[in-house]
Amino acid sequence: MEGFVENLGIIFALAGAALATLFPGLGSAKGVGMVGEAAAGVVAEDPSKFSKVLILQLLPGTQGIYGLLTAFLLLTQIGLLGGETPSVAAGICYFMACLPITVVGYLSAIKQAKTAAAGVALVAKKPEQQSKGMILAAMVETYAVFALLISILALFSIGGLGI
Question: Of 54, 64, 66, nearest to 134 (Cα)?
């Protein structure tokens, strides 16, 4: 039991890294799939629109990258990729630092996919309006970027707390 308690810090930190990778990755996979389904219908009717709808399909995939980046930075902070093994308090703080990208990454990927799928429908009817569909989908991305920024700032601030 004593060894378990000594390792609680790293356990909490690893749980944060796992969630930061898992949920945005799931959201991105679901999102890219949703837009891909819509895009396949458009390409079946007009194969020349493939490149236009592919760009829209890629947009919901970025949240998975943000989650992976957050987990990578955390693993660097806690000593698995260089750094110090965290205390229990620091481990809990690292876990909490991962929550913004975990939650917002997951939800925004799905919401962005719905917006991007609408952009695919726009391209189907008016291909010259692709940039407007991209802008609409990119607006959802803004909140994933904000969550990533907060998670990264929190990860790098924990070491300075002295816990």
Answer: 54
